[in-house]
Amino acid sequence: MSNLTSARVSQQRLWDRHESLARIGATPGGGVNRQALSKEDIAACRQLIDWGNTIGLQASRDEAGNIFLRLEGTDSLAAPVISGSHLDSQPTGGKYDGAYGVLAALEACQAIVESGVRPVRPIEVVAWMNEEGSRFAPGMMGASVFGGARSLDQITSIRDPQGISVGDALRDAQQAMADIPQRDLGRPTFAYVEAHIEQGPLLEREHKAIGVVSGIQGKRTFMVNIEGEASHAGTSLRSERRDALLAAMRIIQALTIHIHDEHDVVKFTIGRFDVTPNAPSVVPSRVRFSIDLRHPDSNVLASLGDAIAGICETHAAPCHVQVDELSSAMSLEFPQDMRQRIRDAADLLDITRMEILSAAGHDARYLHPICPSAMLFIPCHEGITHNESESITAADAAAGARVLTEVIMSLAGS
């Protein structure tokens, strides 16, 4: 066996853990539904903690619901190297989005333990709370609080569609894991590395096993609330109606025209659309919809996003509209030194690689301002993601974990 630490990575063990974790919140279509801070999400965190315990990792949690597993270093006072991702999913999510990064980091720690090498710096596996933003919007809550971009108070009042607040859900999760020690928020971090499936087709198309992520394209999210008036569908005059749904349709059409990009670079998505009272014979009184806007050029993103409120106001009459911006994150570039560590590790292991920009947002965005950060991608079949048919191969998963192990060790020292 090679004397490299990454030689201890077990492809079968990593794959078996993916299959086991996927049974928590499994959907009929072969995917998973683990909403943030749900019983399924808590069960997945419990499973992660159990696996960590078997290899001597010490579990802890913070007030934002983030879960950490610590492999102690010879210098216990040194700032740790952190690696991981998230365990929550979309309602019809795949088995690997987020979960791969957590399990690859766990596998890296187990490989290090089995190799007998002691890192100088502590290494921590993390599962960030609510990356997806499906149950509670916006996403990447846990990482943003850890990184200082949001305060705990800013997220705890946010409610899901059933009216449950983040604060209430956090208390439930903390009660369910009362035996896990609580740690302070936002501890110093030496470096952060996140492994993830690509969520795009480029690596598979180019026959490359590793994507060295250059950066993350910018993203702004909005919630649009349109207030009209409920009235009888058979008796109210069209000229007197305040139809919130028709106003929403005018607004969406105007936004689509304004944001249209013939080069297909800008990404404009309305992913959530709620109508009240949603009854066949009642003129809609309220419409609420989300906007997800992305572009790799921060100037373009700023310009397009700044125009949204004005367009909504112009086309809302006779209804009233309110536009709230939930999050704004400009494009970022990861440090060259961190990216070079991934290149060097892939080359050392004779694993093919290419540079790639992340079109999707990730928790690494909120670690980037507070410590040197990086991401590496592995291929996913046809780029299909946020979908029950999301698919990767065991060989690609193991290759990514081996590269991740070498990067972590280069940062933690031995």
Question: What keywords describe this structure?
Answer:
alpha/beta, 12 helices, 414 residues, single chain, 35% helix, Alpha-Beta Plaits, Aminopeptidase
Short note summarizing the structure:
The chain has 414 residues and is α/β, with parallel strands linked by helices.
Helix and strand composition category = alpha/beta
- Give the fraction of residues assigned to helices: 25-40%
Multimeric organization: single chain
| Residues in β-strands, percent | 15-25%
Tell me the number of strands: 14
Apparent shape: globular
If you consult CATH, what is the topology of the largest domain? Aminopeptidase
Question: Which architecture name of the largest domain does CATH use?
Answer: 3-Layer(aba) Sandwich
Radius of gyration: 23 Å
Total helical segments: 12
Please summarize the sheet with the most strands: 9 strands, mixed
CATH superfamily of the largest domain: Zn peptidases
Q: Under the CATH scheme, which class of the largest domain?
A: Alpha Beta
Give the rounded overall mean pLDDT.
Answer: 97
Query: Distance between termini?
Result: 19 Å
What features would you describe in this structure?
- This protein is an alpha/beta fold and 414 residues long.
- The chain folds into 2 domains: 5-216 and 332-412, Aminopeptidase (3-Layer(aba) Sandwich), CATH 3.40.630.10; 218-329, Alpha-Beta Plaits.
- Helix content is 35%, strand content 21%.
- The protein has 12 helices and 14 strands.
- The strands form 2 sheets. Strands 1, 2, 3, 4, 5, 6, 12, 13 and 14 form a 9-stranded mixed sheet that branches. Strands 7, 8, 9, 10 and 11 form a 5-stranded antiparallel sheet that branches.
- α1 (11-22) packs antiparallel against α3 (99-115), α1 packs across α12 (394-412) and α3 crosses α12 (394-412).
- The protein starts with 10 loop residues before the first helix and ends with a helix.
